[in-house]
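Exam prep: given the inputs below (a chain plus fructose -6-phosphate), describe the expected output before reading on.
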Amino acid sequence: EKGGYEHFMLKEMYEQPKAITDTFSPRIKNGQIEIEELGMSNEEIRRIRKIMVVACGSAAHVGHTSKYIFEGLSRIQVDVDLASEFRYRDPILDDGTLVIVISQSGETADTLAALRESKKRGARVLGIVNVVGSSIAREADNVMYTWAGPEIAVATTKAYSAQLIAVYLLAMKFAHVRGEISDEGLKEMLDDLQALPAQVEMLLNNQENIQRFANRYLAAKDVFFIGRGVDQAISMEGSLKLKEISYIHSEAYAAGELKHGTISLIEEGTLVVAVLTQENLYKKMISNMVEVRTRGAFVMAVTVEGNTEVEKAADYVIYIPETNKYFTNSLAIIPLQLFGYYIALGRGCDVDKPRNLAKSVTVE
Ligand code: F6R
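Solution:
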């Protein structure tokens, strides 16, 4: 059933090109994005005043990514909340608010409670869900499925990647309907979107190099992931992938926040993973990398092809191919998933079933 792979997690990572394709292809027709299951007219899309994205864990990391994408592309204000916080914080929402709940299992107790709370307060709820017919899928006003197929490994990979695609499609649709992007702009983005599966495939094929690098860090005590903007959201997911399966402590930090605390934890040899996929932030990131490196950190960078300037501030660089600036998460996360996987493998951890964790969290 693992199809020749040592673990479900590895198999599911390799299924990502397909999960991505299966999630976008039914929604692109004649060069336009059609999301029938959204159940919203163009008029209703124009009337959205605020989006609230509510989820847990990796799905919440997709939420953090979505803030940059929805705001950047469609100019709709976005709040992102952990479901366990949202449900008890008396959130402000009304009929101009679109609540988007994101969940692989569709059964996460806090996310389901947040959905019910939102409906009670008069907001419209859209679910981005992987498991067909799950509780969240049944109770949401509308549901957009991620077509990742069954995910068995506790650490999510392909469902996460499919959730990102759902967010890109929604943001592009909203932006186009609201006149924030032109027909030409939409066409270019769709071309970049459709190029992602092959690019992900290429990054997966770099596994040997990543395994070799990971094997040098099997005894790491702490790892820090830093990024700015959408790269901070990518860092959060990279950090979670590593810690949940390898049991190595790791933290994601907004790079600009380093000097407000975390930098005091950097010692000789501490591994810092710097994610820099946003051209307008390269310079700022490079200076943060120099700061940690001068304090003894070993810096691994994930950046976009062509940004060779990064080499002066990094000890090891992984390049991702060029894509639209809003889609970089889909590519940058691949080496980070592989990194977490190979560290856990090298440490002899139970990769598919990390201790204390459940695939579906049905109690709060
Ligand atoms: C991490 C992971 C969890 C889930 C979280 C939400 O790899 O899988 O953080 O993302 O428990 O689960 P769903 O998406 O089923 O609501």
